Amino acid sequence: LAADPSSGGTFPKSRLRAVSSRSRDRGTCRSPRWALPPEGWERVVAGRASEPRWAERCFEAAFLAAASGAMDKVKQTVERARAAFGSGRSRAVEFRIQQLKALERMIKEQEREILAAINADIKKNEYNAYSHEILGLLGELALVTDKLPSWAAPQPVEKTILTLTDEAYIHHEPLGVVLVIGAWNYPFVLVIQPLIGAIAAGNAVVIKPSELSEHTANLVAKLIPQYLDPELYQVVHGGIPETTELLKQRFDYIFYTGNPVVGKIVMEAAAKHLTPVTLELGGKSPCYIDKDCDIDVACRRVTWGKYANCGQTCIAPDYVLCDQAIQSRVVENIKKTLKEFYGEDVKNSSDYERIINKRHFKRVMSLLEGQKIAHGGEADEATCFIAPTILTSVNPESRIMQEEIFGPVLPIVTVKNVDEAIQFINQREKPLALYVFSNDKKLIKRVIAETSSGGVTANDVIMHYSLPSLPFGGVGTSGMGAYHGRHSFETFSHRRACLIKSLGLEGANKIRYPPGSQKKVDWAKFILLKKFNRGKIGLIIMAVLGVLAALIVKNHQPLLRRKAPLAVLAGQRLAQLYKY
Known about the structure:
CATH architecture of the domain at 68-281: 3-Layer(aba) Sandwich
Structural class: alpha/beta
Distance between the termini: 87 Å
Strand content: 15-25%
Radius of gyration: 32 Å
CATH superfamily of the domain at 68-281: Aldehyde Dehydrogenase, Chain A, domain 1
């Protein structure tokens, strides 16, 4: 645009490029507040020099037009996914396996690009990025493609005496269109792992990577349509406006990984459509170190779990509980291990990551105010570096003990014994993970029995996440629902109850048809409720009943033909009673 006389400056054309081509063709802006005549922008500017703030209003309208276009695109993405699901092609197990193998091929063929994107987002070297974000996915894909035919097959269930001749099973059917919202701290695996389960269950999926890890998000948006069905599996890239618009749409399931604050927003939006959710949140995961354990080993494992990914792991040990008598040993062992892991100059270690951005850097640093730093504390805002830090003499009521740290800071809180540790844990919100180190298995089992958390690992940290046979998820404010392995398939499936009955043996149904009578009730009680002792008396009774049954069959065949259905039920019930 030419200079806007009313503003005294130049209003660049680049700020108005968001106007749709349709609007440009007819010379109008989408805003209902004003319209442009066909003669174009420059002549209108010259003719409206006296109107104050005209250029600003022009930009505002163009911005709204662009925003409206982006929101329309989100809606269209969901509609395309629903139409693709409606085609039915994602229901075939063979198709699902083909898509999963394509996803596996994507990871293997684009490994270098994936590792580079992760490094650009959180400064993670290729060895750590591969072990944290690729290795587990390849294992999960191998498991799911191998087991999916058996998981998706009809699952027979136990039958009652009334349904012994019928077919009863659970059919796992896809839910429909699923929304997967990823997180930035593990930007690749936390998008792809739930995607694996959603594909395996036969759903269409809309994927929303975190905009904070923009390099990985851009790569996911680029690769998914290249390898997977572009209509069934779509990526929406953007920030809060796009996510807000996504949550206005109706989905059949929402899977969100992030923090409890946003988790509540997701759940509230889902409730408007009665959409079920899985919320993988976080919390303050405690770690109790019993004085009766190998302190050196315990501290090495805690150090690895706490400071990996610069402390930005949802199941990292958030704080340590230990006896005052071993606190100094714990501190010294962690310091020794930090040197072993990262060398003398941790800032220059390629194995040590960075905080995701300056906002989170400032948040973590603010938690250190007023705390006693036993080790670390160094920081560099320009590079979002915070050194591995240990705090002692921590007040349980201080701010750092009230919110999830999500950074490389480890408070140590002293307790007198395991009783006090259990009480301390139970006075707080239920965590996503709980860790306990001890040589005493009874103590470990007691901590498990008397506390609540999403998951537990004893004598190690984080490792329950790596076992696909265990469900991974939270409880209370740390989340709801679970996934990994078969649990992912179950999460994204509807367990449909199926009973297929015969049209024969109609006489057996007379006991449930009107009119009612005591005789019918007695028959129903006998068939459904009666139990016999399987001891010697029970065996004698069964033998006598067997002889009587043989005599009846021999002498009353015409009658039995009329009463066969009830006789069959009675015989089956007797056999079942003997079994139990």
